[in-house]
From TrEMBL:
Record-linked InterPro entries: ANTAR, GAF, GAF-like_dom_sf, WH-like_DNA-bd_sf
Pfam families found in the cross-reference section: ANTAR (PF03861), GAF_2 (PF13185)
Keywords assigned by UniProt, alphabetized: Transcription, Transcription regulation
Domain ANTAR: 172-233
Keyword Protein transport in record: no
The keyword Magnesium appears for this protein: no
SMART domains according to UniProt: ANTAR (SM01012)
Source organism: Micromonospora rifamycinica
The protein's name: GAF domain-containing protein
Length: 242
C-alpha cells in the first residue's frame, strides 16, 4: 500500500472538513447559530489553526460576529474602526494573510489586541453569502509561521463552501419567516382558527401543532385547508341526537 503524502493528507482533511460543515449546517435556519457552528468546526478541524472567527456584514452594516473562543471575539468585531484583517479581506475581496504578527504593521490597534490575546498569525478570507450579506472567515494561529500554503488553500476552499452553506441558511430562515406569517394569517381566519381550537382541545397540543394536524388532514384528503376546517367545525357544532 502506497504511503500517503502530506499533500494527499491535506486534501483528505479539507474534504472531511467540508463534509462536516455541510452536515452541521444543512438543517440550521438561524444565521447566528450557523456562524457559531462554522467557527467551532473549523477551529477543531484545520491543522495549525488554534481559533476561528467570523465577521458578518448585512447591507454594509455589522450583522454578526462569531468566535470559537469568546475571549477572541473582539478581534472579529468592528471595534478597531474597520482596520483589521477581516475588514481588509472584505473591502479588497481577497484573502489577507499575516503569518507573523510580531512584524506586522498594517493594523496597529488590532495587532496589539491580537498579540495580547496570544494570536501570532491570521488568515482572513472573504465570504460572499448573498446579495446583502458578506463576511470574512478568520483563522488564527498561536505561533508565528504556522499558517502556510496548506492553510491558505484550505481557507480559500472553506470560504467558498461556507458562502454557499450560509446562503442556504439565510434562504431557509426567510422561508420559515414567510411560513410563520402565513400561519399567523391562517390562524386569524375565523373558521381555521376555530378548527385549530377544536384540535388543541381534543389533543391538548399548542396551536402550531394543531395547524400541522389540520394541514396533514387536508393533504391526505386532497381538499383545501379551509374546507377541512369548515367540516371539522360543522361536525363539532352539530347537535348530538338524544
Amino acid at each position: 500500500m502506497r504511503e500517503l503524502t502530506s499533500d494527499t493528507l491535506g486534501v483528505l482533511e479539507t474534504a472531511a472538513l467540508l463534509r462536516e460543515l455541510t452536515a452541521g449546517l444543512i438543517a440550521v435556519d438561524d444565521f447566528d447559530a450557523a456562524l457559531a457552528e462554522l467557527v467551532r468546526i473549523t477551529a477543531d478541524a484545520v491543522p495549525g489553526v488554534a481559533w476561528c472567527g467570523f465577521t458578518a456584514l448585512l447591507a454594509g452594516e455589522p450583522a454578526g460576529v462569531a468566535a470559537s473562543d469568546p475571549r477572541l471575539a473582539e478581534l472579529d468585531d468592528l471595534g478597531h474602526g474597520g482596520e483589521s484583517p477581516a475588514m481588509n479581506a472584505i473591502r479588497r475581496r481577497e484573502m489577507t494573510i499575516a503569518a507573523d504578527l510580531t512584524t506586522e504593521d498594517r493594523w496597529p490597534a488590532w495587532t496589539d489586541s491580537a498579540r495580547r490575546l496570544g494570536v501570532r498569525g491570521v488568515i482572513s478570507a472573504p465570504v460572499d453569502v448573498d446579495e446583502q450579506a458578506i463576511g470574512s472567515i478568520n483563522l488564527y494561529a498561536d505561533r508565528a509561521a504556522l499558517l502556510g500554503t496548506r492553510q491558505q488553500l484550505t481557507a480559500m476552499l472553506l470560504a467558498e463552501h461556507a458562502g454557499l452553506l450560509l446562503a442556504a441558511v439565510r434562504d431557509r430562515a426567510r422561508r420559515a419567516e414567510r411560513a410563520g406569517e402565513r400561519d399567523g394569517a391562517l390562524l386569524g381566519e375565523n373558521v381555521v382558527g376555530q378548527a385549530v381550537g377544536v384540535i388543541m382541545t381534543q389533543r391538548g397540543c399548542p396551536a402550531p401543532e394543531a395547524l400541522h394536524v389540520l394541514r396533514s388532514a387536508a393533504s391526505s384528503l386532497d381538499i383545501p385547508l379551509r374546507e377541512v376546517a369548515e367540516r371539522l367545525v360543522t361536525t363539532v357544532s352539530r347537535p348530538r341526537e338524544s
